[in-house]
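Reviewer 2 asked us to include a model.

Predict the structure of this chain.
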Amino acid sequence: MPIPAQISNTSTPAMATSPAILITTLFFATLIAASSANFYQNFDITWGDGRAKILNNGDLLTLSLDKASGSGFQSNNEYLFGKIDMQLKLVPGNSAGTVTAYYLSSKGATWDEIDFEFLGNVTGQPYILHTNVFSQGKGNREQQFYLWFDPTADFHTYSILWNPQRIVFSVDGTPIREFRNLESIGVPFPKNQPMRIYSSLWNADDWATQGGRVKTDWSQAPFTASYRNFNANACVWSSGSSSCSSNSTPSSSSARGNAWLTEEMDSKNEERMKWVQSKYMIYNYCTDTKRFPQGLPTECTTASS
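Predicted model (structure tokens):
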């Protein structure tokens, strides 16, 4: 969609464990445990008429774009909270006009969505990493960054931590953005709608590069982005219920290896995020007073954005 042009681990008490309890605990731990790519097992190619390919016995997935069509895929599972990692290598060379999208989304008119979008550029100019959060169908929470490396030269890890308290976007383990749950002051937060993982490579030269002034050079097609090492440590949603036990306490979740359910930003990661934002952020909706002449969004008046 168009965007602005410039845009603690607590242990449980020791107790005797019966075989039945142990089996049950292992069962639930398996349900919540990380699922890692094989792409054949975890994803479906949903469009592109052969332009998307799963290779290397399921270890690699590629999306391609030409003048006729782009391509895309989605996860087989829906998730209600999780820690999601994917390694991407973006379209090299003159990628102007192209967008590689990697995001979580639900369905319906009041959908939730957590976005990474990579906006291509002419050769020698940097990609723009575009992030957004939608809750109950409302977005307009864009933050954009340059990256501190060439994202086309090798694979890099792009991660989303989504738990009931916060959403954290990270690149190679470095947090770049946090969106906290501020329902207490009237800001909707994605927490009730399960979401699938989606990714696509598509032409958006009406807006993606320099506000649409630079068009896609189709002589460079096909454009290709590559994916590997997907990992989801997440609560799988199926048949109206979550694989995460509804009566789990934070301590029991941590004990089962699901500390991400209550994970917070420590001081070290706060400092790393501030460093990225001071050096590489190029657009922040929370400072765009021209865009919001009647006042900045409510969440922008707090430390979270």
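Residues 1-33, 247-255 have pLDDT under 50 and may be disordered. Residues 13 and 251 are 10 Å apart (CA to CA). We have added this to the supplementary material.
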